[in-house]
Amino acid sequence: MKNKFQVAHSKSKIKVGLMVTLLAFVLCSFIISDPQKKKYFIQKLPFVSLDSLPKVKLPDGVDPNDENWKDIDLTPKQPVQPLTADEETKHFLLPPGYHIQPILTEPAIQQPGAIAFDGNGRMYVLELRSYMLDADSKNELEPTSRISRWEDKNNDGVYESGTIFIDNLIFPRFVLPYGKDCILTMESDADNVYKYTDTNGDGKADKKELFTTKYGRSGNVEHQQAFMYYGMDNWLYSTVNAFRVRETPNGVIREKTGFNRAQWGVTHDDDGKLWFQGGASGLPSHFQFPVQYGNFEVPNEFAKGFDVPWGAAIKLADVQGGMDEVRQPDGSLNRVTGSAGNDVFRGDRLPDKLKGQYFYGEPVARIVRQVNPVVTEGLTTLHNVYQDQKSEFLRSTDPLFRPVDMATAPDGTLYIVDMYHGIIQEGQWTQKGTYLRTKIEQYQLDKVVGLGRIWRITYDGKERDKNQPKMLNESTATLVKHLEHPNGWRRDAAQQLIVLRKDLSVVPALNAMVLTNKNVLARIHALWSLEGLGALKTNVLQKLFKDSNPRIRIQALRASETLYKAGEKSLEANYTSSLSDLNTDVVIQAMMTAKFLNLPNLDSNIKMAMEKNKALGVKLIGEQIITPPKSRNMGPFGAPELSKEQKEVVARGAVIYNELCSQCHGNNGMGTPAGAGKLMAPALAGSLRIQSHPEYAVRAILHGMEGAIDGKTYTAGIMASMKEQSDEWVADVVSYIRNGLSNDASLITPQQVAKIRARTAEQKTIYQHDKLLKSVPKEILVQDGLKVTASHTASTRIGGNVSPLSAFTYEGWSTGINQEKGMWYQVELPTVMAVSEIHFNAPQNVKKGWQFKPNTPIPFIQTYPREFILETSVDGNTWQENIPNIKGNEGENIISLNSTKAKFVRIKLEASVPKDGDDIPWSMRQLKIYGQK
């Protein structure tokens, strides 16, 4: 029996890609005589290639008579037709008592990817209007996406009033409301996060400010960072990035974290622990412990059968992995293969049994899963609540239902973001000749674009909260009262606004709440509000360390870390005593805090805790702190670790900094307070100047510095010259400052210091700050008038823009074919300049056609230039070979030129690379040129 969406339509012409696949099927019939083997060829191979036909064979263990190996129908079908929102409602399957209703749909919004709410409950919608408009992801990087803002002004439950808050964006990565009429976002293939503000109240952002940089990565739009998220600890986290950032009065700082292995989804529970959602794995990716404490390998995180989805019978079998991932005969997904969006439900208008339950979407299976976290001896195992019924919390018989985000809403219910889209795999996996492309064209899924719905989940007898929030208009004292609200969203929003306002008048009320309130959740938020305001005091923590509630003792440990990093070393005694706590979870937290702060006698104290507490979680954490597990291959979601030698450089620099520099610049690099709002010396943590060209810091250390910086003066007066120190000493401390104080910049070598020392030998006096800035090489930007050409240029991905100039943006550039001697990449500067350095990043690429499989290593191709020369020219005709025989390397490459005068700079390959089955192209991204006029 056909579903309602299979309406009669005129026959469609068979697409070219489908004909290719059918031809392969026919040829296979001649080459493979056994009919069951022929079926296996079509069913099992995601990529159909004529070249691969002779290699096909039936694998061991497959029963040719198995019912799952039926002939696959690849004939054209009636196109899948979109339903109206009211029609789609009838196709949802929910547990008894639950209901679903649309609250915002197309044409008002198109292709929503995420939602977020500001303090007045206004809903911001991330509209990814360029996502998969055809099977080739054509124009995916065109500036056609937007962030819109919606209100329910008549309070009928439907968001009817909206504005375009920001338009013409290139596939934006996230939307984070950040105070009054303000959001943070960034675009794909970009490196900067910007703050957008509506200053005149018309619902449209008219002010754009840089918030932080060095935040992005390039590549497939599904593999880039997403979901910048405001954590309960007042830090900002995101998927992919193994760091967190935070705004301070002196700039945005950052700290390294563990790898979260996530793609599209971050949320947190009532205790502030972050939960990250994987993508290709189809599973939650990081949830055992707070990610700032690093990675711990925990076996059996998922209950048996957790990776099996139980979606409704859709029949399409449009699965990227091929027919081996299709449940026969209903055509549904038999193993999770993609996931997006997540939420730990913390509302107050659904049944209490849902509180603390984890929800996430699997848009390939067309389900929203409810997960029950079961904690035993400090370790968490995830269970699918509806697994025994072979079902899910939310299913749909509409093949266009694509749940990509969800959120606890201001009204206390759960919202579901439904992209309502035909294709839900990016163009890299829908190329011509693939199984998925065949299914897309068979049902014309590529024609269903430009739609999207947002749904509200309700329950019988529990009406949504009609008391709309107005926090942006309320006093800070009133916001403190919201910290007691039963809806976790309202507590989060109130805390964020309290911290962003920096209104210290509420500190007494917060202290009273954290110490005496009977609501443990209010106490937790009050504690973190104090921490965010910089008003948390040691005497308050001392009382919390002895609190009868272990949840409060855990929060005290976490919040105290800020004070310890700022120099409050007396807290060491509390950490040591917490290792003997009678509560297992407190002990585990104390162990992680000790590791995070690198406390003295770490190993012996950890062993002591393990001897006193035999819980499995204590044993696992303790053993992995003492003997860290081998670092996992993070593939496209990781970040390169420092080498052993580089770690030694940073460690030596840390000793120098803590013995000498911290007195003025602060233990954490934020500057030592000197009273009356002044600092002894400028903050180094989060400093863009420190993270830019290293010559700024080296010159300041060698020759000293004085004068106002950006109009601010400091009580220390001057930075003394330290030219008597060795090149290694200077390199070590600069490397630490650039990499170890909430900064993320390259390390430098003694050789670099020696060159700068030689060039500046005539500097006999201390630098005036303004003159120092003018003497340091600056990055020459695209907008300055750069022109780029290359011998070979190819798009770095399906749907990408083909331009040599893209190496200066974040997308990157590639030859597209195997590295051959003589290939070149050339930059023409706006005028003759003194070029001093060239930086570029050479990333490793995942092999083409790679399909994700659990516990399977990711195959990489190293695309760095193996050997090259650097040439310069003042006229483009006569070239000078500046540096011969340069050996490239994976990751960051830095080439120094000793301020060579040039208008043209050319990198040219000096060696070809033997093929290893696949082409090994030359690829670059984040190319930067430093120079002076």
Automatic annotation (TrEMBL):
Keyword presence, Nucleotide-binding: no
Keywords from the named record: Heme, Iron, Metal-binding
Record domain Cytochrome c: where: 648-741
Keyword Zinc: no
Domain F5/8 type C: 775-932
Coiled-coil parts of chain: none
Protein name, per record: C-type cytochrome
Species in which this protein is naturally found: Arcicella lustrica
